[in-house]
Every structure is written in structure tokens, then in C-alpha cells.
Amino acid sequence: xxxxxxxxxxxxxxxxxxxxxxxxxxxxxxxxxxxxxxxxxxxxxxxxxxxxxxxxxxxxxxxxxxxxxxxxxxxxxxxxxxxxxxxxxxxxxxxxxxxxxxxxxxxxxxxxxxxxxxxxxxxxxxxxxxxxxxxxxxxxxxxxxxxxxxxxxxxxxxxxxxxxxxxxxxxxxxxxxxxxxxxxxxxxxxxxxxxxxxxxxxxxxxxxxxxxxxxxxxxxxxxxxxxxxxxxxxxxxxxxxxxxxxxxxxxxxxxxxxxxxxxxxxxxxxxxxxxxxxxxxxxxxxxxxxxxxxxxxxxxxxxxxxxxxxxxxxxxxxxxxxxxxxxxxxxxxxxxxxxxxxxxxxxxxxxxxxxxxxxxxxxxxxxxxxxxxxxxxxxxxxxxxxxxxxx
Length: 391
Hints:
The chain crosses the membrane at residues 20-41, 75-95, 115-134, 189-206, 218-244. Keywords: Membrane, Transmembrane, Transmembrane helix. This is DoxX family protein. By secondary structure, the chain is α+β, with helices and mostly antiparallel strands. It folds into 2 domains: 14-255, no CATH class; 260-376, Lipocalin, CATH 2.40.128. The chain contains 10 helices and 10 strands. The chain has an 8-stranded antiparallel barrel. Strand 7 and strand 8 form a beta hairpin. Helix 1 crosses helix 4 (100-129) and helix 6 (163-180) packs across helix 7. The longest helix is centred in the N-terminal third of the chain and has 30 residues, at 100-129. It is elongated, with a radius of gyration of 28 Å. The N and C termini lie far apart (66 Å).
């Protein structure tokens, strides 16, 4: 089958023709992580040499997937892809005489780049539309003081606290991704995608989210896709790209599904009294100061659990899980692999009393609900505000 040529003017400037050669080479190297030219360079070995020789530091060993796309290896490989694309562009320009190879090869490269960009815009868009990427803050999240949050943690909680904001951002990404899947709507899709990715890239820079390099590439690809020419699309591939992101996100939601907790103990509490003896120094005091019992039940690997977060008098914080039952007055708290079963009841003032043992010695905790700790999720929306409520 003869591929249609990209309509590049015969008398186009040299830099335009060079750009038409460079863009698909660098784009394919990036989206295939070097597999586009596997014979040209052993990429891992080259990255190790580059890091040691040019940056004067060894490349860290391969790490398990942890969500970061800004590792040293990612940046070194991006630099190598850039240098390789420049070299291939130079050789391509020297070898080409009649000027038709550029037009022929740009067509499949642009198609791959367009579907790649559209797929990830759809994936991130559906992740936000289904409130999966930045879920609403859990009760245990509310126990973290603002000053102790990381910039990324603050962004995640801020977006998760406003479903309307998250859905609006997801809708923009999903619409841009869907438009990119069709030839006749690729131009508005690339324009909208570029605008969305400018904002996303800025957020990643501002809040130290470790996908700066990836979002920069998505922005670059949206800009490259603005080059005006027509392409044919395969309907089956478009339907698959449209259907897979929401299906994949839904599968992840089922794996990490959350439902309202059955226990009526869920809440954030201030510890009014901990009968265990105080330590000689505050920094060693392991008595409890704040307790957050999640109001959600999470399912993972066939097991159900609710989160618990404890802040000690010393300032240390512990995360774990709790189970209420099967006896109506029993509460089991697991922290750092150690489980403690409490018998609980309420005193005449309504405070929650937990009775447990530590090292064979019984102790009692008196807990009172802390309504101020839930202001972020209970304040709600107000059309009328006589004075600003900024706490």
C-alpha cells in the first residue's frame, strides 16, 4: 500500500524540512523508550556511560515501579534520544535528494504520535472523571497538619477535596484525547490538549510531582500534532483507545474499592486521657494524642480493612488498620504489624472509652470527637459569605 504524502510545500525552508525529519524520530524514540532504533544503541549501557562520564555520578540501579517518571535514568535517556534524533536527522538530510522520503515517513510516525498522546490524555481524563487519581481526603489524611504535608500531598488533597474541579480537569483531558483519535478533529484536539498540558506541566513543576518529564513530552507532542495535514484513522483502533482507559480505571477502582464503613466508631478523636505513664522526655512519650478511625472499608487482594492513624504525644504518627467486631464491644487496632484488641464503651458524657493491655498492664483511653478536625470536608459551599472563612 502506498502511503499518502504529507503536504509539505516544495519550496519550504530548510529548517521546516529538518523539523519534519527530527519530530518523528524523536517522538518515536520517546514513546517506544528507544525500541524504535534498538540496533543503534544499547540504551541502558549508554545511559550508564553518559551519567558517569558527563554527569560524574553513577546511574542508580533499576527500581521497582513507584510512579516516578523523573528518575535520573529517565532524564539521561531523554538526552540520549535527543542527541540520537539530531544525528539521525543530519544523516537523513544528507541522504535525501528528491525530498519525498520525508513526506512518506512522517505519515506513520504522526499517526503513532497522535494515538499515543490521545490514549494518555484519555487515561488521565477518565482517572479524574471517575475521581480515582485524586480521591477525596480520607479521615486519616485530615490528621496531617498543613506544614507536614509534602507539596504533592497538598495538591492531591486539594484537588480531591473538590470533585467539581477534578471532574472539570478530567473532562478537558478526555475531550482532547477523544478529538485526537479522529483525523478531522485532530487540530482542535491538539489545541485543547496543548492548553491542558501547559497547566498540568505547570502544576507538576509547582508541586514537585514526579511526572514533569512525561507531561513535558505530552505537551511537546500536542504541539507537534498541530502541524496541519490530514490522516486516515482506523475505526477499530479508535474505539479500542476510547474504551480501554475507562475500563482500566474501573478495574483499578474495583481492586482498591472503598465503601462506607459499617462501624459507627469512625471519626477523628482527641485523646483526653491516656492512663499509661508519661515518659521522662516528651520526645519519647508514646501515649496517644489524636486518633482517626476511617469511615471507609477498602478491599485489596480479597481482604477488607479500614484505616487508622494515631498521633502520639511525641509527635510521631502511626498508620494501620482497624476492625470493629465480631463482638459488639471489641475493636482491634493493628499498627506496624502488632495488633491490640480493645474493649470499648461510652461514659455518661458520651466519650469513647477504650480498655486494652500493653505488656500485661491494663490501660484506658478516653476519646472525645473532634469536630474541628473535619472542617475541610464538612464546611461545604456557601453562596453568601459575610466575611471570609479562611482557617
